[in-house]
Every structure is written in C-alpha cells, then in structure tokens.
Amino acid sequence: MNDEQTIIQQVYAAKENIQAADQLIGTYMPFIKAETAKFLKRLPIEGHDDELSIAMMAFHEAVGGYSRTRGAFLKYAAMLIKSRLIDYQRKEQRHRKILSLDAPTMEGDTTLGETLTDEREPHEEIVSRNATRQEIEELARQMQEFGITLSDVADNCPKQQRTLEACRKALQYARENPELLEDLLESKRLPIGKLTAGSGVERKTLERHRKYMVSLLLMYTNGYEIIRGHLKQVMKGAAAR
Questions:
Q1: Tens of pLDDT, residues 154-198
Q2: Residues with Cβ < 8 Å from 87, sequence gap 6 or more?
Q3: DSSP H/E element including 127
Q4: CA distances from 234 to 3, 42, 79, 187, 231 (A)
Q5: Local structure of 168: helix, strand or coil
Q6: pTM of the predicted protein model
Q7: Which one, of 37, 29, 23, 22, lies nearest residue 82 by Cα?
C-alpha cells in the first residue's frame, strides 16, 4: 500500500472525479476483501457474498465522508465497513428471523440481541450520521446554485414507472459520458439536447422532470457515496417492480 499522504491525495482526487473513485476502489479491493473476511471469519466469495458489495459501498462512503481531521483514511474506512456490515447483519436477521434474539450465544449467558447491540460503538454511530448529514448539506448547497431545493426534487420526482425508467436511462447515459456531467457543472443547465440524442429519452420527459434530473446528475459529480448508495437501491427496486 502507498503511504498515508499518497492515500489521502488519492481520496481527495476521487471526491472530485468519478473515474478516479472507481480506480481507487479497484486499487483497494484487497483491503476491502480483507476487512470483509475479518467480519465473515472467512474469505468472501465474489458474486455470492452480499457482504462484499456492502463493504465496497462502505468504502465509497468513506471516500465521500473523509477529511484529514478524521485521521488515517484506511482506519476510518475499516470502521465504516465494519459498521455497515453490522447494520446489514442486523437487518438480515430481523428479516429472516433465522435465530431468536433471546437465544444464548456460544460465549455463555449473553444473548445474540445483546451482542449485536454492543457491537456497534457510539462513535461509529456518530461518524455515520455526520457523514450522511455532510453529504446532504453539500448536495443541498450545490443544488442551490441551480435554483433547486430538496423539496423541489421531491415534488418533481416521476410518479409513473415508465417515466422513472426513462429518467434512469438518461442518468445511465450521463454516467457513461462524464463530459455531460462537466457540462452541467460549467453551464449550470441540464444538457437536455445531448441527453435526448444520446439516451433516446423524449425531450419533453426530461424538460418536465428537469429539477429531478439535475439532482440525479449532481449526485454523480462529487463524493456523494452514501446518497448514491440509497439511490442505487431505489433504482434497483424500481427496476424490479
């Protein structure tokens, strides 16, 4: 691994550039897998263990929420990965009801519920909440430059499944063509003509949901890893319906 100063430089570059962020993930996949293995007590299997995907998303989150005041980046990233994996484990156990939370663990009289409660340290909760809040505040600030508020986005969100899929298609095209994201930031205007020509989505659809589309594209122009994680889940759920 590179020394800490080099890592920090890479992280700050990844905050500003999507391709740099993807490259950083690739470079530190061994680290991400190692942290996942610590949690699973075995090596994760790509395409089989959801925990590895959760760990990758947590690493993205760490990039977006990191600042030099947080200390060593990899230590911060490891903490978030562990935190997100614990969250995932809790949700899976509640959902499937595989084990009783009142059942004793192999450690003795301690119950599984008490173990899960104690695993997450207070400072991890604080780091997670702060990172999420910082992303939302930064996104809201950036949206103001376009004359858009968070409530505007909620009001402008597509109501029909077909329209939501169309916006998703336009977003994917923009992600594959980063110059469109750069155009958005420089001109402070949604590049509707280029999006229409490239994605095949009707112009009137993009015009009708301009504020919603601007907010989506902005999420992919900076280190909004936490927000993008939630967005991916929403998009995945929309595609499944």
A1: 778 888 889 989 998 999 999 899 899 888 988 999 999 999 999
A2: none
A3: helix 122-144
A4: 37, 30, 25, 28, 5
A5: helix
A6: 0.48
A7: 37
164-176 pLDDT, tens per residue? Answer: 899 989 999 998 9
Q: Tokens 């909440």, residue?
A: 129
Q: 213 with 167: CB under 8 angstroms?
A: yes
Tell me how far the alpha carbon of residue 223 is from its chain's centroid: 9
Helix (H, G, I), strand (E, B), or coil: what is residue 163?
helix
Nearest CA to 225 out of 133, 129, 135 is that of 135
Question: At a CB cut-off of 8 Å and minimum separation 6, what does 55 contact?
Answer: 32, 33, 35, 36, 39, 44, 81, 84, 85
CB 58 within 8 A of CB 80: yes
Helix (H, G, I), strand (E, B) or coil at 180: helix
Task: Name the residue with tokens 């998009």.
Answer: 235
Which tokens is 180 given?
A: 């469109």
